[in-house]
Design brief:
The protein has 370 residues and is mainly alpha-helical. It is built from 12 helices and 9 strands. The protein has helices spanning 3-15, 21-40, 83-99, 104-116, 123-128, 161-168, 188-205, 225-238, 260-284, 290-314, 323-334, 351-367; strands spanning 48-51, 62-64, 134-139, 141-143, 174-176, 185-187, 210-215, 255-257, 318-320. The strands form 4 sheets. It has a 3-stranded parallel sheet. Helix 7 crosses helix 11 (323-334). The longest helix has 25 residues, at 260-284. The protein is globular and about 75 Å long. It starts with a helix and ends with a helix. It is an enzyme of class 1 (oxidoreductase). One of its GO terms (biological process) is long-chain fatty-acyl-CoA metabolic process.
């Protein structure tokens, strides 16, 4: 594997690490803006390639095209976005939290919630790129490697992997989701391959103005939440999770709730209210149930936060058109690029084979920290 391939490979994983809005805004948005300004000062620069995400579209439905967003354009249909105003608002909230002496954990949580209410896009690059050729890569949910450097490698638990791990441990029995929602996932090495090939093709052409690529699977090779549920159910029936006591965890079929508020009501009635009773009992019994309470409280909060965090994706009704990416494959083949070595064709993924024999085993081996 070449040095450029390794660099891009680990960069795409690092790009997906930041959950806090202040960090994400500073690095993924204004960081890219600073690099753009640097690049415009370089005499021999040929191309600027930016890694974004397909979900800059917000909560749109239907077929989502590979088109740019403009400065001030609304993404969620609720308000117009001014990226510089976003930065000012974020800095004000962060300063207020620090002024009140909020602990780091509270600041991190607050910044995550703040980020969920706002969209980050590619407005700055499109607005200020000038004559610099710009290529934007928009991957969807990143999954473990398909082939390179070897099948199944992933670092950490990402996106829908939280569901798989929680389900395998027996901690997730129900979840708010539309079973017909398409889970758009793409192996990380296919994203890297698309980046490398795009750089090669557009560098050779040298006349590109701006091109956007969805590196995705939903349009030509869809995998629904119902399909995914059946696959990881089948996997953990055949390969049960072994708990801390050396016992096999038995799993049932995951139940989907068609409305998020029904799920949250269930959590309140079945878990949160009894937990409050346990909290009072713990006080009355001189902290006798403290350890049990803390453990249950952590698990219940995790389940509720997971549902809130992934609600937009669990009910997402869009699919990402990747016509530009298909055209990139055609041009690359004409230029003699080996598309077997640099495969980024999502249509080549056989989901049952990939999930059962590559992704889930790889996740459990490489993604779970012992």
């Amino acid at each position: 594997m070449s040095q450029i391939y390794q660099f891009v490979f680990f960069f795409i994983l690092a790009f997906l690490t930041f959950g806090r809005y202040d960090i994400a805004l500073g690095i993924n948005t204004f960081g890219a803006f600073n690099v753009l300004n640097f690049g415009k000062k370089c005499d021999k620069i040929k191309l600027f390639l930016h890694i974004s995400t397909a979900y800059v579209c917000g909560e749109k439905a239907g077929i989502i095209l590979e088109k740019r967003f403009y400065m001030g354009e609304t993404l969620k249909g609720t308000h117009s976005i001014n990226i510089f105003e976003e930065k000012r608002t974020m800095e004000e909230q962060l300063a207020q939290l620090r002024c009140h002496g909020a602990p780091d954990k509270a600041i991190k949580s607050s910044m995550k919630e703040f980020g969920l209410k706002r969209a980050m896009g590619e407005m700055l690059l499109g607005q200020f790129k000038g004559d610099l050729p710009l290529v934007i890569i928009r991957p969807t949910a990143i999954a473990s490697t398909y082939k390179q450097p070897f099948p199944g490698w992933i670092e950490g638990v990402r996106t829908f992997d939280s569901f798989i791990v929680s389900y395998g441990k027996g901690k997730l029995t129900c979840f708010p989701a539309n079973p017909n929602t398409i889970v758009d996932v793409i192996p990380v090495d296919m994203v890297v391959n698309a980046m490398v090939v795009a750089m090669r093709v557009h560098y050779a052409e040298r006349h590109v103005c701006e091109t956007i690529y969805h590196v995705s699977s939903s349009f030509r090779n869809p995998l629904t939440l119902s399909d995914l549920r059946n696959l990881f159910h089948c996997y953990f029936i055949k390969n049960p999770w072994i708990d801390a006591n050396g016992l096999r965890v038995k799993v049932g079929q995951l139940t989907f709730f068609s409305k998020a508020n029904r799920y949250l009501l269930l959590m309140q009635m079945k878990y949160v209210l009894p937990l409050k009773v346990l909290y009072l009992a713990n006080i009355l019994c001189c902290q006798r149930f403290k350890k049990i309470y803390k453990n249950l409280n952590r698990k219940i909060n995790f389940a509720i936060q997971l549902a809130k965090l992934y609600e937009p994706y669990a009910f997402f009704l869009g699919s990402f058109n990747d016509g530009n990416l298909v055209e990139l494959q055609r041009v690359a083949e004409e230029q003699g690029i080996d598309l077997v070595e640099f495969n980024f064709d999502s249509e080549s993924i056989e989901w049952e084979e990939y999930m059962m024999n590559i992704h889930i085993p790889g996740l459990l081996k490489y993604g779970i920290k012992s």
